[in-house]
Specification:
alpha+beta, two-stranded antiparallel ribbon, 1 helix
């Protein structure tokens, strides 16, 4: 997806989740948003992960 100046690609589910990534256009939604907004969202998500000790690859409830 071409990136206009001042924009970044935002995806859902988040790339940092097990459900994220997948096959572009098949299992996720993506949209160009302002770079500042994307960075703020990433910072908030990282803070949430750290506060709640969400560790990549950690098994919770029998799922990875």
């Amino acid at each position: 997806m071409p990136r206009p100046k001042g924009k970044q690609c935002d995806e859902y589910p988040l790339a940092s989740t097990t459900e994220g990534g997948g096959i572009i256009g098949k299992t996720q939604s993506r949209k160009m948003i302002a770079t500042d907004h994307n960075r703020q969202g990433g910072t908030q998500l990282a803070t949430f992960y750290n506060t709640h000790r969400i560790i990549p690859g950690e098994v919770r409830g029998g799922q990875v």
